[in-house]
Specification:
The chain has about 90 residues and is mainly α. It is built from 3 helices and no strands. It is extended and about 55 Å long. It starts with about 20 loop residues before the first helix and ends with a helix.
Length: about 90
């Protein structure tokens, strides 16, 4: 039987200075709010629990056919963000 008393990998002490993965912290806070009764739409991590609408799948297929396969800017697509804000304003106001 093989007993390992030492870690397989020794990490540098500077590893302790690495900041936490903030999206995980965001997810933890969202779960706290859910347990408190808040209705939370999770958009921070993981896969959605619904299928994309048909216009989205058509746009994705068109983008693939045109060779548009690179990642977006880390801050997102500004036009899409404006559209998202407008849609949320219409559906969540009042």
């Amino acid at each position: 039987m093989n007993h390992v008393s030492e870690p397989l990998i020794r990490l540098a002490s500077r590893v302790d200075a690495i900041e936490p993965f903030y999206v995980m912290e965001l997810m933890k806070q969202a779960h706290v709010l859910e347990r408190a009764g808040r209705d939370i739409i999770h958009m921070s991590i993981g896969e959605p629990d619904f299928t994309a609408p048909e216009p989205v799948t058509h746009a994705a297929a068109d983008a693939l056919a045109r060779g548009v396969t690179q990642y977006t800017n880390a801050l997102g697509i500004h036009a899409a963000a404006r559209g998202d804000r407008a849609a949320l304003s219409r559906t969540r106001s009042g």
